[in-house]
């Protein structure tokens, strides 16, 4: 059986006062690294195989989080494709988040994992202006109509807004 429903998503675009490189530097200085996350993920798998207490995995994750309380899971660079297409614009998509907060939601409703980690893109247009775009986390998860999920989504979104404000101003 298949069911489909339409949802409303709020899309946010922030025009930055900072150059592209400065925004990326700001993000990467405030986020746990992608390489660090891969190491943490392996550590968690080892802990799970040993049936270690959940607290050990939580401690490993907490050590990996940057000052923003997020880590980078994956960064996808679009700029080489733009260059090959003859464009001077640049773009990089980040998949970032906090696994501890994601787990609070996905253990209530596993489908929420479709939206965690967060996705946002930093891009520079042809005129050299830098932007950050994302779909708001609360709007993505509103479809589930679960107060416990909405509360965590609001916390995540506030952390994302603070991070993006700090690097784009």
Automatic annotation (TrEMBL):
Signal peptide: none
Residue intervals of the DUF302 domain: 92-135
CDD domains registered for this protein in UniProt: DUF302 (cd14797)
Transmembrane segments: none
A Pfam family recorded for this sequence: DUF302
Protein name (database record): DUF302 domain-containing protein
């Amino acid at each position: 059986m298949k069911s489909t429903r339409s949802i409303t998503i709020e899309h946010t675009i922030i025009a930055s006062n900072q150059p592209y490189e400065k925004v990326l530097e700001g993000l990467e200085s405030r986020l746990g690294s992608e390489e660090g996350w891969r190491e943490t993920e392996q550590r968690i798998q080892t802990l799970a195989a040993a049936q270690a207490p959940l607290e050990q995995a939580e401690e490993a994750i907490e050590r990996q989080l940057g000052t923003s309380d997020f880590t980078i899971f994956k960064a996808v660079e679009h700029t080489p494709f733009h260059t090959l297409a003859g464009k001077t614009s640049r773009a990089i998509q980040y998949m970032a988040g906090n696994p501890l907060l994601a787990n609070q939601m996905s253990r209530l409703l596993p489908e929420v994992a479709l939206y965690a980690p967060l996705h946002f893109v930093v891009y520079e247009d042809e005129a050299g202006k830098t932007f950050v775009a994302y779909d708001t986390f609360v709007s993505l998860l509103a479809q589930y109509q679960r107060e416990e999920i909405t509360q965590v989504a609001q916390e995540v979104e506030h952390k994302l807004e603070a991070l993006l404000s700090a690097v784009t101003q």
